């Protein structure tokens, strides 16, 4: 099986950025991230305008390349102070930069402040390749870092579990990150830009 990068959807990344990247969330903003390892590269760009989110993810991995484009509309559910937000919208995947796939993506996310900082939970499913993604992110206010645990897969026998740590660069909208992919047994490094 080819070694693929973390195939984060832009919705997952944008939602994580909104939840973990700022103590007071603004409705509109931009997020970009690049992760690189020995065999893989993933680049993400997303933007949010009110309840609408748009974005793209480019993945270059051993054995292929993918380009994903998505849009979604947000529906807050439950307690307005700490809602579960449901995001639903169309998804396009240009798999291997050869085959176009069209589908539907659904994301559920929840953010809450805690005594130690913050907790963010996210689950995502897509009809394209029956893909799924889960993320738990702990924002630690003391050392000012975010620790994230992810698991994802699809019906093409792709599976990956990873852990990463992100550290904001003081006085900027940038963060640096490092992590480890357990199935691929490789370290990745990255940088992100977040205006939320």
Automatic annotation (TrEMBL):
<keyword id="KW-0732">Signal</keyword>
<protein>
    <recommendedName>
        <fullName>Outer membrane protein beta-barrel domain-containing protein</fullName>
    </recommendedName>
</protein>
<feature type="signal peptide">
    <location>
        <begin position="1"/>
        <end position="27"/>
    </location>
</feature>
